Amino acid sequence: xxxxxxxxxxxxxxxxxxxxxxxxxxxxxxxxxxxxxxxxxxxxxxxxxxxxxxxxxxxxxxxxxxxxxxxxxxxxxxxxxxxxxxxxxxxxxxxxxxxxxxxxxxxxxxxxxxxxxxxxxxxxxxxxxxxxxxxxxxxxxxxxxxxxxxxxxxxxxxxxxxxxxxxxxxxxxxxxxxxxxxxxxxxxxxxxxxxxxxxxxxxxxxxxxxxxxxxxxxxxxxxxxxxxxxxxxxxxxxxxxxxxxxxxxxxxxxxxxxxxxxxxxxxxxxxxxxxxxxxxxxxxxxxxxxxxxxxxxxxxx
Length: 301
Hints:
There is one protein chain. By secondary structure, this protein is of the alpha/beta class. It is 34% helix and 24% strand. The chain has 9 helices and 11 strands. The strands form 2 sheets. A 7-stranded mixed beta sheet has the order 6-7-8-3-9-10-11. The protein has a 4-stranded antiparallel beta sheet with strand order 2-1-4-5, with helices on one face. Helix 3 (105-115) runs parallel beside helix 5 (149-161). It is globular and about 50 Å long. Mean pLDDT is 83; it is low at 239-245 and 261-297.
């Protein structure tokens, strides 16, 4: 199958003024992440990983260059447009979990659906089924301070995937976990991504986490020094996401259908068929990335 770009980064540079100098955090980044890929942004501390993730999330504007995600040039959007784009297209998994302490696991998981206007009954059922899938059927009414770090991150995963967004951005999702919990979390992320054909951008300095990716981008001093396309490590528990009952699928699809109705009048394009995997390693070549103008009504800078 022909590969379809989900994320396109073109000549992105990010500079920060420090006294009389400029610190270059990202230096002419060119990157294409295709639909359905699990892409790991890999590198040591200070390499620019978090800065690049902030660019993809629309939290910072590039100094130069442009970014297109799911057919929209986000680098040209204002704050209100960015907030709307994130709500409809992005899910987030955080290193520090970022659960609201005053809300239960069920309420935290349902939050994205609440912001999208999904009715209470549907979002409660969808959140409950997602928590069951991450092994927290008996923790739905627990608050974050009543759960372990691994359990809190499972809630974070359920929250990120409950609305089936096109793109999931994960910032060091195993950074605060032990090795056993880290493996369980990465298995779940991989399983859900494959179940819903979603694009995952994972920032990590962990070689173990990178093994789950089929596209690894090596960053060093703000530049891409190598890209790898490979066959990812298979999950040992593929039942996490694929084991949904027909009733569970119906509930999640119902929430997703409500999202699609609300998206119908937005100037965003729907996703397209999943692409095949490749297996090769090559040095980064900024000139090899091709932009498809048909994927967006605006051109990248």
